[in-house]
Amino acid sequence: HRILLLGAPGAGKGTQSAKLADEYGVEHVTTGDALRANKDMETEYGTPRSFMEAGELVPDPVVNEIVEAALADADGFVLDGYPRNLDQAEYLSSISDLDAVIFLDVDEEVLVDRLTGRRVCNDCGANFHVDFQPPEVPGVCDECGGELIQRDDDTEETARERLEVFYENTEPVIEHFRDEGDLVEVDGEAPPDEVFDRIRDVLDE
Length: 205
Ligand code: AP5
Ligand code: ZN
Prior knowledge:
The chain has about 200 residues and is an alpha/beta fold. It has one domain: Rossmann fold, CATH 3.40.50.300. The chain is about 45% helix and about 15% strand. The strands form 2 sheets. Strands 2-3-1-4-8 form a 5-stranded parallel beta sheet, with helices on both faces. Strands 6-5-7 form a 3-stranded antiparallel beta sheet. It binds BIS(adenosine)-5'-pentaphosphate (AP5) and zinc ion. The site of zinc ion has 8 residues, from loops. Catalyzes the reversible transfer of the terminal phosphate group between ATP and AMP. Plays an important role in cellular energy homeostasis and in adenine nucleotide metabolism.
């Protein structure tokens, strides 16, 4: 399987990609996590951190290189967080073919609630939400006992900036795949397991 998962910030791409990688035994390739792990890497454009903390896109050459290396090593994959603009989409089509393109559709106000309430494990990266997916013990990771923290870019102000960037840069990517006839839309406003069942139905068709 070579699966592309598209959606706005907070749509549930990370949550669903992790489940898909488990279920189908494919690599989870995510530019967000890759960039967070290399936040302070020096590039000719500056560090990824400077862009990410402002909610802006990291420059294409940096991101394209990360994706190309990750896909070259992967047999099958679920790709999440890329492409985020038309240039990245063009680059992707030059390096890989896709079997499925899925767009997780979620309303803007729901996205803001999901982003500002998200907590992530500082040790293993697992995702939680203070209301929608609360950990058993507040502030503690169910998986590994690590500390749960809020991402720098999940403040309301930066979350809204990221949504602006999405509507401006990434919606045209979604239109592009829709025009090509490759896009399958999945309603992402349901509990995670239900959304996962919907995605699985699409893939198993
Ligand atoms: P990235 O890490 O990709 O962030 P994003 O696209 O903004 O996506 P998120 O991780 O915020 O959301 P998600 O859709 O994965 O949702 P999640 O499953 O966590 O990118 C971060 C930054 O890196 C960018 O701003 C940019 O600077 C840079 N970057 C990354 N890729 C780039 C690229 N290609 N080019 C340039 N720059 C790039 O869910 C969110 C919350 O909701 C969680 O708390 C979760 O528990 C909860 N939740 C999930 N599903 C449900 C559900 N069904 N019901 C209720 N709650 C749910
Ligand atoms: Zn953990």
